[in-house]
Specification:
- The chain is of the alpha/beta class.
- It is about 45% helix and about 15% strand.
- The chain is built from 13 helices and 10 strands.
- The strands form 2 sheets. The chain has a 5-stranded parallel sheet with strand order 2-1-3-4-5, sandwiched between helices. Strands 7-6-8-9-10 form a 5-stranded parallel sheet, sandwiched between helices.
- Strand 1, helix 4 and strand 2 form a beta-alpha-beta unit.
- It is globular, with a radius of gyration of 20 Å.
- The chain binds 5-amino-5-deoxy-1-O-phosphono-D-mannitol (M6R).
- One of its GO terms (biological process) is protein N-linked glycosylation.
């Protein structure tokens, strides 16, 4: 079943162009975005949505954090994202007009299911599941649903489920914007063209594997790593750190780069590799000065830059240029390189990549 691959995780990383193509099949033709992709009642529910609340755990929570940037900037709807196991145990202010979005690969995560039921018990019945398993418990509980078509994910570390969740969330953003009159025809056509290009764009990122493997070999002997990102790439830094922790057991933390000088800079020395997600966006100049702060303290930097970004290579600063610049969908491309990085770090360490210690694929207990 593994074919030419050594592990399910590797196979699933490389299946991403196909998984994205399948998930986005309904927009493959020339038409526009249809809210009905989310269910027959989607137009009514989306049209009345004034707030979005996203609930999820782990990697699915990171997908929600990226979606917050998209939903607020494109659909102009206020959005909060909460870890399901925290939401269900706190007193919050319920709002029946809020669209509650639960994200789960398995659809069986106990905390996410319980958070959804809790939200419903508070009178929030406008619910949407983004899930990879059509007949799962979570999907059976929601008014609307979008089933990602990643195919079965076997590796405990979630990879293709994450990128397909992001594709679904990009579609949700466009549907919310369209129903609420915030999407011009030109913008709709542009976003859809970018989405249709995704499988090809991801395939090009996968070609960077040999260079990324070289990086992983350099830092796999370290005990700690710091991941930096800004804006919608901060959740990608979080996801990169989670992947590295899960499968290579290297302690990793992620920070929005602007927070460095508020504490974590104290940790930086030559034993602390710093991995930066540095796309060519409006925050690049700020990020560059954050990277200077790291370099001045002897930290070894590994920078994922976009095509055409000018970040000078120098002693202790390694730069890898992504094949293209991707705009709004950039988090989907950048995460692929971080998946490869953690996979290769784990190979060097010889850990059980597909079944890391202490973890289960589906967390069906609290
Ligand atoms: O099936 P779910 O998406 O609900 O699972 C949520 C988390 O348990 C999951 O994403 C976990 O964090 C992964 N092992 C991350 O790689």
């Amino acid at each position: 079943e593994l074919g030419k691959y050594r592990h399910y995780m590797q196979k699933e990383i490389f299946e991403q162009p196909q998984a994205l193509g399948n998930t986005l099949e309904m927009i493959a033709g020339g038409g526009g975005i249809s809210p009905q992709l989310f269910g027959a009642d989607a137009v009514g529910i989306f049209g009345a949505t004034r707030r979005v609340l996203i609930l999820a755990c782990g990697t699915s929570y990171h997908a929600g954090l990226v979606a917050r940037y998209w939903i607020e900037s494109v659909a102009k709807i206020s959005c909060t994202v909460e870890i399901a196991s925290e939401y269900r145990y706190r007193d919050s202010v319920p709002d029946p007009e809020t669209l509650v979005v639960v994200i789960s690969q398995s659809g069986e995560t106990a905390d996410t299911l319980a958070a959804l039921k809790f939200a419903k018990s508070l009178g929030m019945n406008k619910t949407l599941a983004i899930c990879n398993v059509p007949e799962s418990a979570i999907v059976r509980e929601t008014a609307l649903r979008f089933v990602t078509r990643a195919g079965p994910e076997i590796g405990v570390a979630s990879t293709k489920a994450f990128t397909t969740q992001l594709a679904a969330l990009a579609l949700l953003t466009l549907a919310l914007a369209k129903v609420n009159g915030r999407l011009s025809d030109e913008d709709e056509a542009m976003h859809l063209a970018h989405l249709r290009h995704l499988p090809v764009a991801v395939a090009k990122v996968l070609e960077l594997e040999p260079e990324i493997e070289g990086w992983a070999q350099r830092f796999a002997s370290k005990h700690h790593a710091l991941f930096l990102g800004r804006g919608m790439h901060y959740p990608i830094a979080l996801e990169g750190a989670l992947k590295l922790k899960e499968i290579s057991y290297i302690h990793a933390e992620a920070y929005p780069a602007g927070e460095l000088k508020h504490g974590p800079l104290a940790l930086v020395d030559k034993e602390m590799p710093v991995i930066a997600v540095a796309p060519a966006d409006s925050l690049l100049e700020k990020l560059k000065s954050n990277l200077q702060e790291v370099k001045a303290r002897g930290g070894e930097l590994y920078v994922f830059a976009d095509a055409g970004s000018e970040i000078p290579q120098s002693e202790g600063v390694h730069i890898l240029h992504m094949p293209e610049h991707y705009g709004l969908l950039s988090p989907i491309l950048h995460v692929v390189s971080l998946q490869l990085l953690s996979y290769h770090a784990a190979l060097v360490k010889g850990t059980d990549v597909d079944k890391p210690r202490n973890l289960a694929k589906s967390v069906t207990v609290e």
